[in-house]
Write a structure and sequence with these properties.
heterodimer, A: alpha/beta, Rossmann fold, 4-stranded parallel sheet, globular, B: 367 residues, 8 strands
Amino acid sequence: MPAIGIPRALLYYDYYPAWKKFFEELGLEVVLSDKTTKTILDSGVKVALDETCLPVKLFYGHVDNLKNKGIDYLFVPRLVSVEKKRYLCPKFLGLPNMVESLMEELPPLLDFKMDLSRKKREFYKDLYALGRKFTINPFKIYLAYRKAVKELKRYEEKMLAGFTPLDCLERGEGENREKKEAAISLGEGKLPVEENLRIAVLGHSYNLNDPYISMDIYGKLKKMGVKIITREMISPSAQMEGIKNLRKDIFWTFGKEIMGSALYLLDKEKIDGVVLVVSFGCGPDSLIGELVERIYKRHRNIPLLFLTLDEHSGEAGILTRLEAFVDMVKFKKESA
Amino acid sequence: MKITFPHMGSLAVPLKTIFEELGQEVVVPPSITKKTVTLGVRHSPEFACFPLKVNIGNFIEALENGADTIIMAGGVGPCRFGYYAEVQREILTDLGYNFELIVLEPPQGSLWGLLANIKRLGNHRSWSEIWEVINIAWKQVLALDVLHEMSLKIRPYEKKKGATTVLYERAQKLIEKARTHEDITWSLDKGKELLNSVDKKTLDRPPLKIGIVGEIYMVLEPYANLDIEKTLGEMGVEVDRSIYLGHWIKEHLFPKAFRSREGEEIKKVAQGYLNHFVGGHGLESVGRTILYSRDNFDGVVHILPFTCTPEIVAQSILPEVSKDYKIPLISFSLDEHSGKAGFVTRLEAFLDLLSQKKYNQELKGAV
């Protein structure tokens, strides 16, 4: 049974259940890279260009980590677009090429272009070509595709219900049993919420859901007795409602999601504050973040914290800023 | 309506022609200076790419001079440029300026929005009049490009440093003033004459040939690229620029039949390294570098604005291209913090390496 390696980075948090299902249905063994550690991040930083953003550097690190796991193939998809008329970041479009150029002694990369901006048939053609490498049975590929889509739907529904991606993914993996038992989904509100502060944490899923990279922002806020709202808990239709008043549609999927969530929350939901997490050097976010910040400033009633992360961020600094922010939000609420 | 627009190389010349000939008042932003950049940087998002910041500086200075309508181009991604105008509008609004920002978006599905905007900017003149004016401006663009290319060829041979630049600027002025087909043809001939009159020295060996690739704004705008063409030219290097305004317009805005095959060729040669577009000029940077090596250039300079995503993809891949094709390459990531002295030092070191490589090889052949 050939083994296929999937880096635990970037769109892992959005699509892993589907990828896993698809490959397993085709009779492949799926191998994940280890959870992010300093060593993994450092090995990524070493090969990357200085200016590359943190998540891409981390991706290189996870690829490097997979090298020694005895895999036959490496899954580095070219992530062009996941919906009509919208793109992902340019760096994702060139991801397999960058990995190939920068890193040596890699197992063969699986060439797969994920481009849903085109007709569904075109996408299926690409997927079919990917499946053909492992089976000659077209029916099997189609079945794997259907099952993967179903799996993805279930995953997305779970997240809308208030589970974090990490809850779902780790449970599926069956590791971290203790943590699993203790995992309290964010939406259920079993937390000590005396203050009942509701703070939204917005950002790219691959930054927020990696506890090493995000310095466990979720956990830190939870400990401060804050009820967290994440982007995954805001339905796509609500996000679309958020951006409907913009003059120009946002052509980055993640940008749209962040902007849409931020504006929807500003208008519709009772929240006490927003933490916007951005990685240094992120192209789209440099503009989207600026717009969100400006719009929030004009409304003047919801405080916003803009956190920029990179490989040099210190945990203490982040904690101090979060504490100060939560204190401020608390004061504001009490004095109102 | 007092129209203004951002600077990018000599882009202001044709734009001024178009709007003035159509009877609009134009406020050209003052040439980019340190002050422009400082203004722009102060009010722009910290990690936005450099062109956005310079644009903001241009706009502020033009609005202060009385402009009330800003023209910007749009886009549909994935490069950040497509969303520039939206951010710039908010920044300038927050600064309290009263203006309208008209964005010329590439038509997506319907041409109507774009045409309506053009008609309005064209003072509601007839389409044939608008077409005629655009034609004149197009001719100016081409003439300016021809002169620019000539100046690059002549500069390494000039006897007195800076002589080419003086005459080139004079030739540029001639084109700027020419507003009819005959005038432009005459000015172009005159301009060529001027450039050819530069005092030349005979070099004892052929100059180094360097190609410039990178992001269009940084390549076209001398203030942003620290005057790299002039600097290299005066160090005795023959520079070839991969992007010209006219060429870019032809490849991107003309119907497919008018385009040269070059776009396809770039895609083809880049295939083994980058087989998908990445927005901006990422793919071109990779493809062009390969073409330069095929055309026996001595080196390539790659210029990008700091944190430019498409060019980071290119920059990650270019070292491998450079190694495989044996063409030396240097990347400059520039922004408001770039200093000229450090830049020149790095260029000098690069040139030293190139000349050692080139002339030592020749020597070996002779022995």
